[in-house]
Amino acid sequence: MITAETIRRALQCDDQSCPCHKPTGHVHCPGHEDTTPSLSITEKNGKLLFYCHGDCASDRVKSALKEKGMWPSGNGDRPQARLGPLSEPTAIYDYHGAKGNLVFQVCRFQTPTGKTFRQRRPDGKGGWVWKMAGVKPVPYRLPEILKADTIYIPEGEKDCNNLAALGLTATCNPMGAGKWRKEYNRHFQGKAVVIIPDNDDAGRKHALDVARNLHSVAASVKVVELPALPEKGDVSDWLNGGATVEQLQALVEAAPEYEQDQDYDQDAEIPGPEGGRNKPNQAEILLKLAGDAELFHDSNTKGFATIEVDEHRETWPIRAKGFKSWLLRRFFQATGKAPGAQAMQDALGVLEAQAHFDGPKHDVFVRVAHAGGNIYIDLANDSWQVVEITPSGWQVVADPPVKFRRPPGLAAMPTPKPGGKLADLRPFINCREEDWPLVVAWILGTFSLGPYPIMIFQGEQGCAKSTAARIMKSVVDPGSTPLRTTPREVRDLLISATNSWCLAFDNLSDLKDWLSDSFCRLATGGGLSTRELYSDADETILDAMRPCILNGIDSMVSRADLADRAILLELPQIPEDERRLEGDLRASFEAAHPGIFGAICDALSAALANFHDMKLDKLPRMADFAVWVVAAEPALPWEPGTFLTAYTRNRAAVVEHSLEGDVVAVAIRAFMENKESWEGTPTNLLNELTNAAGDLVSKGRAWPKAPNSLTNKLKRAATFLRASGFEVERSKSGNRLVAIRKVEEKTVQTVQTVQVQKPCEFAPDDPLDDPKGLDDQTVHLDGPRTILDDTPKRPSTLEATDDKGLDDVDGADDKNQSFSNETMVDCVDCQNFSDSPDGPGGRGYCQLHEKSWDGKIIQFAGALHLCQSFKYKDSITVLAAWDEATAQIVGEAMQALNPEEDLKEVSL
Q: CA-based angle 323:324:327, to the nearest 5?
């Protein structure tokens, strides 16, 4: 007997992690394309009870179960066994995209109770996935119907193939009758359509559904019912019975065009509910005119529509002006009149409900989207084109797989031009040369998945802060108002963020605490929930993570959490003779912008290719941003490692800048100047710091007035105080003591692992050999160590020729003096240089480039220096120091080591 359990098992998919495999969970409804299990089925008193939570009618579910042989007929029938991926189909139908790519397959299987169909998609590895999750369905034989003028639409793929064998172009939708989707309609714009139903109620109902969908887009629609068809017969049965293609074409010629719903005049009549004749109202006409719009909703259940406009597709919120204008235009073209305001509101309400309950869910993006491992950038031009960036390159496409919306104020970006250079952007940004990599890095970071560091420009009047902010905003996300004023509240800021990709705020003189916190949330992701207008319980959720640019004369980074997310650039003053007219600057930038954009696309492609394989030895703050930029460095106009060096230096400067603006941090540094540690209650600490700060500071608004306020400020400043050498700890016991002690200053050193493209400039035969007879050992003096990789450590030794000058700190003379166990040091060019004796002749050896260097590698006071020769005997001799500064450092260090020895020679 067929039971609820046997039907449940038959409707389970092959993915064992799917909820349909839960003992009491829902299974996949056969009545609609059910990627999320929605059918509950149970058995009570010998009866099968089922309900589709996807709003399928019970008759549709029952018919689908019967078609699959899963419904009891009273004679002991059993459902067919669930088909696995290894079952052999009796027929396979390929569904291709508009460009001919295989999207999915429909497989036909023969079971003891009849035929059944299943769908599968390629897994990208030569195999198949037996479910359609993530697949965008298309009509059968799509590339052919796009080229044809007349299209035949039977019910199944077999019928389409038989018609194609007769020289006709035919298509159908996947998954059988009742599964036509509105997004198929756009492919039939201006075509002559002939619909051939199967000879049953389901077939005729399906044919009328397709006709209603296509009548407003196709040039003509005809429904042709074939004569003398057996019950449930189709066009293949008719042709197999001896009919010819000429007879079919004659039937098509004689058939009238489909007329229902075609006359949209308000005086036309339609059938009423009791058989009478009623006039369609304007709302009904508007709903019919919107029939070919693709309706869907986002994660917040907001309704959207994708519509066909002048050979391209646009996505609009259903309540947005763009969609309303499109619908108004259609109504006027059909009726010559304008609809009433209430009719428009009624129609939009119904369309929103359809988008919410009947439409699929899609994410909707502004300007930038990530999908399938690629980046999509909306050019916001009249053709709705998008730049598609992949790990292998980029191209401009017209129909991307993601949905973009166009908020008011979004301006067009130029079409990127191949072969451009990022250096072409340099003349438009007034910054110091050492800060230029940070400008490029921030721009590239805005196209990542985030988080996004906040770019802050500071400087005196006349250093082009506003111009720099405007140019960078135009590069990333141009808008009609590129620079904004200070928002009045968090809601205003988040509304701006949901309607732009990049926010730029001009001439900020002071950041209130709430605004500083808001910018922090915007950089790393945050949202706001507020009551929806004209409702008591509904909420509106504003959630965004966006790149931001701030500029101002005064210091804006006074709070550590904002400083921890910021790139702070002090812009230099522009000399009078180097100033340019705004119009000339704008014209030059617009001319260079396409090439600059193309170079950015090249760098983003490199970032996609390298990001997931990129490893940093130590991760700085905003680690995702840092790894993203390092992954792009092979396509950037500087040596690998340049960005991390600049970023680490800038972070140290931001830390110091923030501490200088924090009155509590300044007071702690002054208070602890002559102390190694201090411990006491928050009250005692507040009194001590108040005395150390003086009346001018302690009576200001920023100074904490109570111990708990001091504690909160200490929490905010703790990270940066630790970086500057002060550890602040609070007791976890009930005495609430605060302890401050001096610690060794910590700096973040990160080492990137990008493969360097430039070959090592030092070959084994370079004329850099030591003078004959000079010592060939490598000397390391004790000091801070820098470990650049995980190579095994091995002591480096200096073989002494006598006992003079080898005293170490304990006063003992050693024949074999060991100063350091560090073996990996910097190669001049590839930063992977080793003093490993594995190199030819025991010389310094570059493992990456497999080349040798005969020079000496010496560490003094934590710095690494290369010298062509080093001699340590009765006198101290350094020959051919790498540069003058190195010669001076080596000389001073050696004299400090042995004051009684004279420095005989230091030459370049």
A: 85
